[in-house]
Design brief:
The protein has about 100 residues and is mainly β. It is built from no helices and six strands.
Length: about 100
């Protein structure tokens, strides 16, 4: 990979303003401030899993970083829900306060 090269990849994860893009068997960190265009999201800089993007990249002290991220294709597929976001169960109250 050449540093001047523009890569195409898929968004793996993007939450709370940061996430990861997979391209050429590498993982690139992306921050919302490095998103140049993200489609018709009303100006919000968000990415969703499985969306195709193009980006420039560089190597930082912590690893590969995506720059100038541009959305090229939105995916209509709904990714599977992560296990840590499963539905919460109601717990019975344990307070034994006097009536």
């Amino acid at each position: 990979m050449d540093l001047a090269e523009i890569l195409t990849g898929k968004v793996r994860q993007f939450e709370h303003g940061w996430g990861f893009i997979e391209a050429e068997d590498q993982e690139f960190f992306v921050h919302f401030s490095n998103i140049s265009y993200c489609g018709s999201n009303g100006g919000f800089k968000i990415l969703k899993p499985e969306w195709k993007v193009q980006f420039k990249w560089h190597v930082s002290l912590k690893g590969f970083k995506a720059l100038d991220v541009v959305l090229i294709e939105e995916s209509n597929e709904t990714p599977p829900k992560p296990t840590y976001l499963r539905e919460r169960k109601e717990h019975p109250r344990v307070h034994n306060w006097p009536a």
